[in-house]
Each structure stands twice: as structure tokens, then as C-alpha cells.
Amino acid sequence: MAGAPKASTLTEASEEIASLKRKIQQLETELKRQASNHHNLPSPIGSSPSLYSAPVSTGGAPEPGLKRYCGGIQFRPTRSSNDTWFGPSSLYAFIQRLGDFLNIKLQKEHTIHRLHPVSASDHKLLNEPEPGLHGHISHSWAPPAGEVPTTGIYLSLIQEEYFINLFWQTFHTSLYPIVDETQFKKHYQSLMVNGGQDRKPSALVDVIIAICMQYATSAMPSETQGILVEGKDALVAGRWHYWRGQKLLTYELDSPSLSTLQCHLLCVVYTCGGSFHNMMDSIMGLAVRTAYMLGLHLDPSPTLPEKDRELRRRLWWAVYLLDSKAGMKLGRPFMLSSSHAMPSLPSDTLEAAASSGSMFAPIGPNATWLSYNLHTVQLYRNVRTAYTAFFDQDSLLREGQVLWANHEAQNSSAEVLRAHTQSLYEWVEGVPESLKMKRQNGGQPLSTDFTSILLEPFTPPWLQRQRLLLEHTYHHLSVNLYRPFISFSLKPPIDSIAEELAMRCASHAITLTMITHHALTESSLLDGWHEAFFCQWNAVMTLIGYIILFPSSTLSNQAKHAIELAISVFDNFGAKFSVAANAAQITRDLSANLEVLLKPIESEQNSAIFPEDLEANSLYSAPVDLVLPSQDRFDAPLFNLFDMAVDIDFWNDVDTLFPDLDQSLQVQSEI
After folding, report:
1. Alpha-carbon span 52 to 642, nearest angstrom
2. What pTM value is reported for the model?
3. Which residues contact residue 213 at a Cβ distance below 8 angstroms, ignoring those fewer than 6 apart?
4. In angstroms, rounded to a whole number, what is the distance separating the alpha carbons of residues 136 and 440?
5. DSSP state, 73?
6. E-strand spans in 149-218?
7. Rg of the chain over all Cα atoms, to the nearest angstrom
8. Could you read off the pLDDT of 169-190 as tens digits, one per residue?
9. Number of C-alpha atoms within 13 angstroms, CB side, residue 626?
């Protein structure tokens, strides 16, 4: 054997063996020292290394001035045959760290998540639909160029009008105003053929109908949803219109228009609402590139009419908002570059509102229905700036680390983030009073004082929803911004900046839950609003992590009460779509075991004495049984929290969005 030591005598062989043993001991000591310094989480028993978030070595240090992608997770979602990467800011990465923490301390072997790829041929999900009372098989007008689907469950013109009318009171006012209502209605009338008995296909019309079908059906009890869901969950209602719109968009790839971009942005809304997050991310990429193709990154020419200039600005900032939202939610790099100057922010003046194509009364002094969009964009700008500063800093993660290095680095990172909180306070102060959701008992709007919201009577639903969603978005973004300090590798020291930010995170999650619960029980403003459900799921999992990490915190009781409210929220949503019912059951099971889990932790931590040479409050510097009791200490099931995230966010089969794919596969197999 090449390179093997040669020993001619027994004495020499014994000396060589002793020397090798010493070298092995030295290497083991060095490995232990590196693991201690980096505070890396060991992989749970029986887990696959590919599922974990340690950064991949590039064979050397990065070039000067370049940053390394650190953290995140690589895993294979349910019904997927390929791995997917989510960054460290995502809920998936947070739940994986929480699951790792519990699995390591419980010392039990179980799979980190289920791998059950599902295809159309396995479950026959894509059979041709049959006509029913609430829908019909329509043979729609198709362009001669071809291959646009002409059969499927499409709406009658009267049914289309119902869903299109929903758009102006919901997504148009409470998401982003990127469609000129007057021009759209003229366009819709121009599509009529056969004496007004049918219409030509239009990508924009079909996508608007699809997202409104998804929204409206998700607000109805499951037993009343009828044929429009085709026996599937409400979150894929409207898939035939969505799919036809996608087919039509392929003809516009080489010659995009403003309508093309409008369609891409609305498709992002539809796929996000259906929990197809990788599809959403891919379509978002198309939207970004299309915006650059159309020159929207440049301030509009002064030769254009003012209404066209404002529409182009609103489109650009809608791209910015959704790119920011997708990047922070999934933990992936932003696709839209912030290194160059951008167009002016869209105007919310009375003149801009009057020329927007929609007629809504002014909501207050110097505030119109467009003000919601303007202040939402400003909020995302402030949060994205703070987010970028936090995750770009060198002290946060070092080579080979997936979490904090030490308390000094942790507190340094907290100082960076806290420096940006002033911009959020200034944003709150800048929101017009007419856009703020009032609080009961003299509470402050856009605060975490835990006072209940006040729903004003005789206020248009679109304005109530704007107020509600503006505050909802503020708390949701704050939860995600401060969540890195709920860290399971290094608990923040008492009274440190890092602990303060962890408490802020919990306060915003509690407030979001209270607002969502109040709105659902006393109004219909959030019925069918998928984003509210996903934000609630994000908040409740964050609160579970906070309680486990800070069982004796002054916020623990409020956090536990918020978890109970979240269960009620999920039950409310769960009556309309099944993924929420699943979330309710998961949260209920966790809540039932949480108290049992925490009792021995609290009693042992209270009686524990940490040596002075150990880092204060470091969970991993304490003995295993001091941090979490072993599984045989209480009768509770193992918490496979990562499975829960996968079950909630990847419950759908992506093929359901492409209704004739099954037939295409069959044809290919025959060929």
C-alpha cells in the first residue's frame, strides 16, 4: 500500500502505532475545538447531510470584496423529486433549526421530512372535468395561431362579471393598483364575439378571473364551493383560467407590453396564494426582466401623459415590492438591482387618483385610495434596507458557520439592525391618520401595546381592508426582520440588544395574531385572503420557538395565549381550505405538549448554576439534560417541525395548475 509506514521490528511497529494514536487524538481535539468555536449544530441521528445548512466549501477563501452565501437549507419538498434551497431568513430555515434543536436534545431517530413524489399519472388528478351546476365546459374563441386550450371549466360571461367586479374592491385597492380600470373595461368589451355570447381569450382577463376565483372560493365553506374546485382545494380554484392565461403569455415573450407585466405580477399573486413558491419565484424573475425590457427602471419621459407616467411608476414599484417580498420570504437574493437610481415613487395626490381610471372618494386630507400603495412601498423600502444591511455584514456569519459565532458577533449584528429601527418609527409617524386602524381603549395604531383594533362602521370595505392590511404587513415584516435573534445555538444574554430584538419579534407576532383573530371573528375583511393565513402560520411558529427559548420571559403568557388564538384563526380558515385545517391540527398538537415540555426545563434552569467560564445563557454550553429533558421524561410525541412546514407550504401538486398536462404525458408516452 503506497504511503503506508514501514516497520521492520515489533518494537518499531509498536512505536509507530503509538505515534498514530497521538496524531488521531490531536486531530480529534482540533475537531472538537473547531466545533466548539463555531457552535455548529450536529446533524440529527439518521439525517441526510444534504438537508442541512452548512455552507458548501469553495476550496478557499472568497475573493476580496465578495461575500459568501451562508446558512439556509437544502431539502426536497413533499411531492417534489428535486432539492430546493431556502435562505436563512425563511421560515423553513427557522423551523429546521428549531427541529434540529429538539431532535438533538431528545436523542431520537426519525426522518426529517417525508419524501413522497407525486405525479399526475399516479393520482389521476388531471382528468378532463365534467360540466356541473356551478360551471360549464366552454368552447372559447381561440386565435388561429394555436394551442390555446378551448375546452375546460370556464365561466359564463355573467359569472366572469361577478369575479371581475371583486377585483376592483380587493386586489386592485389592497394589493397594488397596476391596472387602469377604465381601460380594462373597454378592453373587455372589445373581446366580445358571436353577438356577445362569447369572448376572445385574453391573458389579462383570464389571470384576473383566476385570482378572484381563488379568493372568492376560499371565502366559502368547503361544502358550498361546488364544481369550480373540481374536488380539489379552493386554493387552486380558477386553474383553467390561470393556465389559459399562461399559454397566451408565451406568445408575448419576445414582444412584451405593459399588459404582459401586469399578467406576470398577478400570476405571482395566484401562485403565492396557492403555495407554489418556486413557481412564484420563477414568475417573479420573468416580471423583473420584463420590467427592464419595458424601460420601467427609468423615470418616465416627460412627453408621456401624466396618467401614463404614473401607471409606469406604479408598475415598477409593484415589481420592487414583490421582489422584496419574495426574496425576504424565501431567503433568496433579490432579483431587482438596487445599485442604480430608481424612478420617482408613485403619487397619491387627488389629481393622480382622478386620472387612475378608478373612482374612489378621498379618504382624508392629502390622502386618496392610492395612499395605501405608496406607504406600503415605503415600508418595504425601509425593511429591505435593514434586511440587506443585516445579512450583508461580515460579523454575522463566518466561514463554516450557520449560526452565531459568539455573543460579541451576535450583539454587533443586533446593533446593526437596531440602527435601522428608527426608519420604521419614522414610517409609522408618516402614515396618514385616515390609513391607520384605530385601537380600543386609547391604544396606539401600528404599535405592540396589545390593544384590540377598532373596526369602524359605515366605512367602505376596501378602506377597512387597506387599514387592516397595512398594519398586518408592518407586523409581519417586523417578525421576519427580528427573528434571527431567536437563535437555538446561542441564546442572547439577559438585557442585551439581541434579547431586546427577540422580544420585539415576539411582540409583533402576538399583535399580528390578535389583529387577525379579531378581524376574522368580527368581520369578513380577511375571509379568503391567503396572505393573512400564511402570515399567521409564520407568526405562530415563531412564537413556538420564542417560548421554547425564553420560557420565563415576561411575554411568555401573552405568547401562549396568542397560540390559542392562532388555533382559532386556523379553524376559521380551515372551514374553507384544507391546508389551514392541517395548520390548526399541527398547532393544537404542539400547544398540548408545550406546557409538558417546558415544566422540567423551567425547574431545572431555575436551579442550575452555570460556571463562570461558560458563556452566559448559551444553551449549548449547558448539559443536554439541563436544556431539554430526555424523551422518556414525559409522554409526548416527537416534534417533527420541519415536516410541518413542508406539509403547510408544499401541500399542493404543481401539476394541478396545468390541467391538460396529463393528456400531454399520455401522448408522449404513446409516441
Report:
1. 12
2. 0.82
3. 155, 163, 228, 237, 238, 241
4. 48
5. E
6. 153-154, 192-193, 198-199
7. 27
8. 999 999 999 999 999 999 999 9
9. 13
